[in-house]
Write a structure and sequence with these properties.
Layout (H helix, E strand, L loop, with lengths): L3 E3 L9 H6 L4 H12 L4 E6 L10 E3 L2 E3 L5 H20 L6 E8 L5 H12 L5 E8 L4 H17 L3 E6 L5
Length: 169
């Protein structure tokens, strides 16, 4: 058994299952069902373009999602993600962690990352950076950015973990 599960990945930007089944409470049911099967596991929501932006189109689920091009779009997605978590908590979904996909395609000031994480921290649920990779700059620039982002995130009490994606590429 695993200690952590993404109950259903990328439900903020793609609600394929709930749409096909015409069930707006499907994600809550999925959390409760997973919890009944593996009560010791931490169950996660996990989504993209709420922490590190994408500047290109992303293929997710069974359709293409538009990339997040501006801070205002990311802020809107971040607020929607927070509301999604709050709604799930209000309906009894046993959420153990919030995953924020960390595909860095360009750097932002570290304070902006801290502010984004602090918005989600208001839910009281531990945060994990997931799918973390750096897709800009040369090796030295990537190392410097990783040093900064790791120092920042490890210094925040509400960030509980980091999962790298393509670390050795």
């Amino acid at each position: 058994r695993f200690a952590h599960y993404d109950v259903n990945n990328e439900q903020l930007h793609g609600q394929w299952y709930s749409g096909k089944l015409n069930d707006t409470d499907l994600l809550t049911w999925m959390f409760k069902e997973f919890h009944s099967l593996v009560p010791s596991a931490k169950l996660f929501v996990n989504d993209f373009s709420v922490f590190a932006g994408a500047t290109h189109n992303i293929v997710c689920c069974f359709h293409t999602c538009a990339g997040i091009e501006s801070y205002s779009q990311m802020f809107h997605s971040l607020q929607a993600y927070k509301r999604q978590v709050e709604r799930l908590l209000a309906t009894g979904a046993p959420i153990g962690g919030i995953g924020v996909q960390a595909h860095f395609s360009k750097p932002s000031p570290m304070v902006s990352y801290m502010k984004r994480l602090s918005v989600l921290a208001q839910t009281g649920i531990p945060i994990w950076l997931t799918e973390m990779d750096v897709r800009f700059g040369n090796d030295d620039e990537q190392v410097a950015f990783l040093d900064d982002i790791l120092r920042l995130t490890f210094s925040l009490p509400y960030v509980e973990g980091i999962i790298f994606w393509g670390f050795w590429d």
